[in-house]
Write the structure tokens for this entry.
Amino acid sequence: MTPYLTPDILLNAPTGISWRTVPAPGASPQQQLAEQLRICQRVTSEIDRECNQVLRATVDIDEFDGPDFVITVNARGIARMALTRWPVLSITSAQYCGADVFPRSWTTIPVDQLSLEYSTPGIYGSGAPDDSASGPNAVLVAPGYLDWSRGRRGWRLQVTYVNGWPHTSLTAAAADATTTLAVDDCTGWAGITGTLYDGDATEDVHVLSASVASGPGTLTLSAATTFPHAKGVLLTSMPAVVQQAGIYLAMAQALTRGATATTVQTLPGAKQTPGDSGGTIDALRTEARHILAAFRRVATA
């Protein structure tokens, strides 16, 4: 899967890091690139770990008994289920059965009888959540399915949904003026606007449809691209602040390995003592955690 940060983004960011010294002085360009990729992968894992969830768009399944605190039913018979991960992009399916029925004998709830509790349109009116890390976190079920007839926690509801920020990369070069992109993950992209991060050729694109619900496939765009893009270019709807947090974490990893720095000492809270990177590393990680705080979705134990 595509990491949240790529070597190109890392090298073009104003980090002040001498990346030629990573993994060690005298390393070949191939060794440098390999270590940069590993840093980006470690940063991705660190971001997800800090947020206690995967930020990229994923398909998830929640299953709870209700009515209770997680699943409520109001006076009009509308059931509401709070989902464990958000922002929710769409509800794929839902089914229910009696909580005491074993083996489970599920009854499917038609998709048109399901709705997100509310929607916050993202950039250009797309369904992508915005930089505030807010968005829908509950599904509503039409009357006639769940009620109090079986008592408290008498029903079991299972919901499959797509949540998070669609994130992928090109698996093949794309010419300019194209309306299709081959990517490594189509999850959540239909109806979403994302950014192709490609240096001076960076541009926003709006996705009309995807060839598959998830996994590798092809995205069809609402308008042709302006620039050509090489294989591996990042396409993401993830907020830019997450990328910035990733850059700080990558810098901290590089400094831990002994790379030299020229500008990172200007970070808030960093030590100003020349040659002392210990305070800088702590400041970088602290700043990244501050940025990611709004994206935490599951409480830590």
In short: Residues 29-51 form the longest helix (23 residues).
